[in-house]
Amino acid sequence: MPFNKFIPCYHHHFGRQCKLAYYGFTKLVELLEAIPEILQVLECGEEKILTLTEVERFKALAAQFVKLLRSQKDNCLMMTDLLTEYAKTFGYTFRLQDYNVSSVSALTQKLCHVV
User: pTM here?
Assistant: First the structure.
């Protein structure tokens, strides 16, 4: 997520303003850098990008896969159908490269504790 989209997204998601003072900060970047085990602030040229750490990305993905599997008949899904069903369920295409894998099989190996 672009850094400059965080505040509007926060407001949209929570229905209230993000008051930095509630968290003991005066600058947003300081707040976000205070949680390095969850979030990374990357600089791409002039622009700052927010991204979850790899651990947090996989936690979020695991929760999505649980939801996806529970929505299936018999809680099962063919690996060949995973990307299609993911897109239908969550409304966007799954990008294997975001998880540093090139196949669904490699992805499921990283999520062996879930699937």
Answer: 0.79
